[in-house]
Design brief:
The protein is mainly β. It has 1 helix and 16 strands. The protein is 8% helix and 57% strand. A hairpin with a 2-residue loop joins β12 and β13 (132-137). The two termini are 38 Å apart. The model has no long low-confidence stretch (mean pLDDT 85).
């Protein structure tokens, strides 16, 4: 799994690979072997290969974390690249606009028609990508003023699927 950590204006790539026992973690350019010492809903305690203990506290807002090592604590924002891309697209859309494919795939089902009123979170299109079905939802309330795809169609990343006019 890949993530991006943000701290003090810097973006740091993180990659996590599960091993038979523990994890292999890349932070920036350095790799570490890490054992999960303890896990709770919002707290994880890790032991690094040199025996150093590290605590990771996950805040309820979703992306903010505190990492404690020895006597210092660092606050970082950790997100996965797909979530970042989705948020960026939603931010660009504002109160309506183009709904685009976040990745290449095949349209399994179109759940709306031109003229339909939709609420925020309503299912618009089901896109199959990487052998998983992903329901694309309306980021806002509005009226579907154009549907650009049909079931069975293959789309590229960034392809416009549906357009929603703001109310």
């Amino acid at each position: 799994m890949k993530f991006i950590a943000r701290h003090a204006g810097e973006e740091i790539p993180i990659e996590v690979e599960r091993l038979a026992s523990g994890y292999r973690v890349r932070v920036g350019e350095r790799w570490f072997i890490v054992d999960l010492a303890e896990a709770g809903r919002f707290l994880r305690s890790f032991r690094l290969e040199d025996g150093t203990q590290l605590a990771l506290i996950h805040h309820r807002d979703g992306t903010m974390h505190e990492i404690s090592l020895a006597d210092s604590t660092v606050h970082v924002d950790i997100t996965d690249p797909l979530s970042l891309k989705r948020k960026r697209i939603e931010d660009e859309m504002g109160a309506g606009g183009a709904i685009r494919a976040l990745m290449p795939g095949r349209i399994v089902r179109v759940m709306v028609h031109k003229g339909d009123a939709v609420r925020k979170g309503a299912g618009l299109v089901v896109l199959e990508a990487m052998k998983m079905e992903n329901e694309i939802q309306a980021p806002t309330e509005g009226i579907v003023d154009e549907v650009f795809v049909e079931a069975g169609q293959t789309v590229e990343s960034g392809a416009e699927l549906v357009h929603i006019a703001a109310l």
